[in-house]
Specification:
The chain is an all-alpha fold. Helix content is about 60%, strand content about 0%.
């Protein structure tokens, strides 16, 4: 077991590439025009180009590495909330007081900021919320509140991780389900699902839904504070711009959710029972640069297998254990926006996955349509 106590800064530096988005957002805010396009260009195309050059990283770190040795890896997630907060609200104040950006420039700028708060902020929030450290969990809550998606914490922790690949999980995209239909379904069902999960958790402890332990109180206060600040800094225009970046961030997150589990289902065992979660139930991607930007989120098979494992220690799997994406999340997400193209690329892979891992299943119709029974004991 490795017990390194000296934090290795050089090993962590590639995971700090998200910092490049902060000065790009500042330039786009100050200069207007098409400078906003640098943000999605950096997050989507630069990382994909680097992937083409660097290839895949299939090395697995020592899972026994001491937490002290991960200091510089963790640091980027700890400093991100103040950076994102200043970027969003600084931009709102600046553009509403300067007043010389056109409508399309404002829309583009806050689209780019939404890409930053979605592809980085919510990904970092996801990492932070899985930790036991109270400060980290609070930072995760603050990041989610800045995109008005606080219920994601409850839905992700109580529903998604327990019931991924079953009808109970709204963000397990079904085979042949287009992204746009999936996005509508998640927006419709997600908040209510998170509320029921928290309500039932409180009920089992003998507490009412109004109990102070219900995190929806915290969600409401934090999100209300973000909305009030946007209004105070930029008036009604500032509020609209804040809402726009939040919608873009949510769209970016759900594109990622769509890619992560598309068509992958846990085998139904009868009597409301499903098989245990395995690496095969998430798409895996080993592309180097996009894993740096997304702090190893593409090693998603291992994250579901070991949810409390910190991102630097996540393992990658070969095709004998987990299905592999042909390219990293950014381009897969863009492909998902064109359902016929997506189906041409991914449906054959899903069918191959079924033949590889579940040759005994002859009727996939109920899986495709989400018609299997709810899991026994599901929240």
């Amino acid at each position: 077991m490795t017990m390194t106590t000296t934090p290795p800064l050089p090993a962590a530096l590639p995971f700090w590439m998200s910092l490049g988005l902060v000065p790009l957002a500042a330039l786009a805010t100050a200069w207007g025009g098409w400078w906003w396009a640098l943000l999605p260009g950096y997050a989507w195309y630069l990382t994909t180009g680097l992937d083409a050059v660097l290839g895949q990283n299939e090395r697995n770190p020592d899972t026994g590495t001491a937490e002290a040795a991960l200091f510089w890896h963790r640091a980027i997630t700890l400093i991100w909330f103040p950076l994102q907060f200043l970027t969003i609200f600084g931009a709102i104040w600046y553009v509403t007081h300067r007043g010389d950006l056109s409508g399309w420039e404002l829309a583009g700028l806050f689209f780019g900021i939404g890409i930053m708060s979605g592809s980085i902020g919510i990904v970092y929030a996801h990492e932070l919320l899985h930790q036991r450290n109270r400060t980290e969990r609070w930072l995760g809550d603050l990041l989610l509140a800045s995109t008005l998606y606080s219920h994601f914490r409850s839905e992700h922790m109580l529903v998604h991780h327990a019931w991924v690949g079953t009808p109970r999980d709204a963000v397990s995209a079904r085979y042949n389900e287009g992204f746009h239909r999936f996005f509508y379904r998640v927006l419709r069902d997600g908040p209510g699902s998170a509320w029921r999960a928290e309500r039932n958790l409180l009920a089992r402890a003998g507490r009412p839904v109004t109990d102070r332990r219900n995190p929806f109180w915290r969600y409401a206060v934090l999100q209300g504070a973000m909305l009030a600040l946007a209004l105070a800094l930029g008036g009604w225009l500032g509020l609209v711009l804040f809402l726009w970046q939040a919608l873009v961030a949510i769209w970016q997150l759900e594109l990622t959710n769509y890619v992560e589990h598309y068509g992958l289902t846990r085998k139904y065992l009868g009597d409301g029972r499903y098989e245990h979660i395995k690496p095969r139930h998430s798409w895996n991607a080993a592309q180097s640069a996009t894993n740096w930007l997304l702090i190893n989120l593409q090693r998603h098979s291992d994250h579901h297998y070991k949810p409390d494992r910190r991102f630097p220690l996540l393992q990658t799997y070969g095709p004998d254990e987990a299905p592999q994406l042909p390219i990293g999340y950014p381009i897969m997400g863009l492909m998902a926006l064109i359902p016929p193209l997506w189906r041409r690329q991914m449906n054959p892979r899903v069918r191959a996955w079924r033949r590889q891992f579940y040759p005994e299943v002859t009727d996939w119709g109920p899986y495709n349509r989400g018609e299997l029974p709810m899991p026994r004991g599901a929240l």
